[in-house]
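Running this now, will post back.
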Amino acid sequence: MKTTKETKTLIHKFARIDAGESESQKTLQELLLAAFGNAPSAFDRQEPIDETGDLKRVIGSFKEDREVLLGHLLMYEKGMDITYLTENETEKGSFEVRRASLKSIDTLSGADANERTQDDAKIKEVLQGALFFGVADNHVIFLQSQVVNERRLELHLNWLLKDCTNLLDGTGSVTLTNQPAKSVVETIKAAKVKEVSLGTPVQISSTMDGASGSLSGSSDSSVEVVTHKVSGGFELLKNYMSTMLRDDSEISNLTNDSNLEVFIKVRYLNKTDKNGETFLDKLAIATRNFDPEDTTIELKGGGKIRGDELRLSKQVRVGAINKVLEKADVYDNIVKWIEELLESGEID
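Update: finished.
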């Protein structure tokens, strides 16, 4: 077995809890502890996420360490075999996919017959992905995977607290939101915002006449078309333009296949009033929930804040064995970062 240190990213979110009609004032940490008290066994809190009920999410285990509630959210499919990549024996230079059952792997592992008999009685399923998390009051820090990410954590927390344990009623909800560091908020308020841009500029070389960078009928032999992508911007463009044009037939014919992208920029040219400054400051902080690569804030008097500076994250080195992360080391990194954030005053 090979022991390594892997670079991973910890992400901070703030849990906003709408207790609905229950009027509960509990933090997320308190709600989760109550949920685990009501359903202490992982078998009692497996969330079915497909029609067959074979695909499931579950918080496999939990514990408290240094006043932080730690756990890992697992996703698996019942009865699924392992698939793996191998070199194709008949077609050199290509790969093929093979499968193996967990039972066959146990047989190959060298365990004696008595050990295998005892182990066969245990439930074993192929893990599709995992997310490690820590909760302190309403602060949530997690290390996600491609399969089990922030959105799936939020969905499972809502299912666990509403459908599984009824700690929140049907009108309640838990939302994981970005919370900028206090230092960034103070910078925005002190320097004032001049411009907020949402969207990633993408340079496109037009090939209408077959020549890269040239538009047919254009007086410029090298025309660059700059477009900007913003989520939901396509529908925004259609709604906006339909009010300006008498004949909106061309607009109504547009679809996502038209490959149009939209860029939004809010700014003032020379000066603005107090209301404009307040609006831009609030808009700048609100953009924390957009894709960090799509957001740029330009401050009055110079200076810029990137989207990734509007949310809290940290790269850490985590121990792993054969690329599988060591749970204890992940948890230790989570707790230490929460302590750092609290001590520095970036969160409270």
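The chain is about 30% helix and 30% strand. More later if anyone needs it.
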